[in-house]
Amino acid sequence: MMRRTYSVVWCIAILWFLLGSSVGYTAMPVVSDGLNVVADIVEKVSPAVVNIDTLRTKVYRSPLAPFFDDPFFRYFFGDTQEERRVPVKGVGTGFVFRSDGYIITNNHVIEGAEEIKVTFNDGKQFSGKVVGRDPLTDIAVIRIEASELPTIPLGDSDTAKVGEFVIAIGNPYGLSHTVTTGVLSAKGRPISAGDSGREYENFLQTDAAINPGNSGGPLLNLQGEVIGINTAILPYAQGIGFAIPINMAKSILEQLINQGKVVRAWLGVFIQEVTQEIAEKFGLSQPRGALVADISPNSPAERAEISRGDIILKVDGQETNTISELQRVVRSHRPGDRVTVEIWREKKTMVVEVVLGELQEEGSMTPSWGVTLGVEVREITPDLVTQYALKRTSGVVIVGIESGGAADRAGLRPGDVIVECNRNGITSLRDWEQALSRIQPGESVLLLIDRGGRTYFVPLRAEQRKE
User: Fold this and answer.
1) Which residue stretches of the chain have pLDDT < 50?
2) What is the pTM of this model?
């Protein structure tokens, strides 16, 4: 009897092992001959996945910088370095999508890089050159001098299904060609990332491990096609990774290669979604449209007399019930296109015509309204506070000076914080843009500058923006 019981137990154990090995929770798909699909795909695509090493220089300002021009200070302390330049290395990933040397990666991997080194799985190294980049989508294209390179086919992220298996290959923390697996956890995630709080749209979410260094690498389906570009934008996330849909990249690759940037149409409105409470207050029977919360100065929307409090219902006949829908419709056009905008104002609909402008990159040295002071500014972030040893956390900090421009002639320099413009307070990039919009070329401008914790006024003259 005991022997028969042991036989039954052994039979059950063997059946459990056989079934568990084929349908268990952690089991990965296998092909008919028993080889692992993942291993086959990795072997096939790895020659086209590259490690990207960058070198950039960070400038650190001494907190004693304001005293360096003081003869009394120099008498006791001598000539002390006001700025210290430190080389900073970065790591990332990319993959070849054209055999003549074109590589996709993340914009944040190569942004500001003075040197780019591309290393293949077989150890071959090349110098990389930035062909084009797009901060808005965090996508960049670099090129190396090589031909007949292995490539990875670009798939269709729109048809990818939540729950399907995915594979990530990258260079996390410098660990070359690391492979991780998981499933596609979600689609269409809007993610705020970085100190600036920039919001990226429509991300793919996965539980495949994605860490710093994975950025720019491919997220693959089980056909060995790229469906996403991995990006490690949430360093505090555990078990959550994100990837840019490859269809987003495919839609802008031609512009990045031919023009070096993406030219987008611009309406010039700051919008928020319409809730049930907002709909009731504005006399709408149900929540729909996009509420205009503010208007950019001298924007196409302002010229078309769109006002704060208008609700944009349609653009060229297409409904715009969410922020992403409005952005998608506007970005489907080109700068200079004339579009009809249906708005809800004072409990009735009306239609206005708008000639779309061109979206400018944030922090541009040449703003769209035609005047420049020869500075490139950014909103203050913790990184910039550290980089420039700032004493102030409100205002905009100068990060670039146009050689020979108005700011250069006035003695301004990177690390200076603009606190006021023509006696109007500057606390954000929007304040700065609005202040510039009220200035004409040739007009005298008075800036209040904070340098090392001390403020002083700087007069300079605005100049016509060079086209």
Assistant:
1) 1-2, 5-6, 8-9, 12-28, 30-34, 193-198, 362-369, 467
2) 0.65
Looking at residue 71, its pLDDT comes to 59
Residue 24 lies in a domain: no
Q: What is the pLDDT of residue 306?
A: 93
Which CATH number is 448's domain given? 2.30.42.10
- CA neighbor of 339 nearest in space, from 267, 254, 388: 267
pLDDT for the residue 169: 95
Q: What is the pLDDT of residue 466?
A: 57
For the chain, what is the domain count? Answer: 3
* Residues taking part in catalysis: 108, 138, 215
CB-based burial, 179-188: b 16+ in 10 Å, e otherwise: bbbbebbebe
Pairwise CA distance, residues 445 & 336, whole Å: 31
**Last residue of a domain, which of 262, 296, 312?**
262
